[in-house]
Amino acid sequence: MVDGALGGSFLKRIGDHLENADIEREI
């Protein structure tokens, strides 16, 4: 369960990073 939580937060962090990168590219 702990590994799953860490994996979820890790994927979420990557998703946020990708979204921020896309926004910067649009600008």
Characterise this structure:
The protein is an all-alpha fold and 27 residues long. 93% of the residues lie in helices and 0% in strands. It is built from 1 helix and no strands. 0% of the residues are buried. The model has no long low-confidence stretch (mean pLDDT 81).
One letter per element, helices H and strands E, the order comes to H
Strand content: under 5%
Integer-rounded radius of gyration = 12 Å
| Secondary structure category | mainly alpha
Give the tags.
rod-shaped, mainly alpha, 27 residues
In short:
The protein has 27 residues and is mainly α. It has one helix and no strands.
Break the fold down into its secondary structure elements and pairings.
Blueprint: H1 2-26
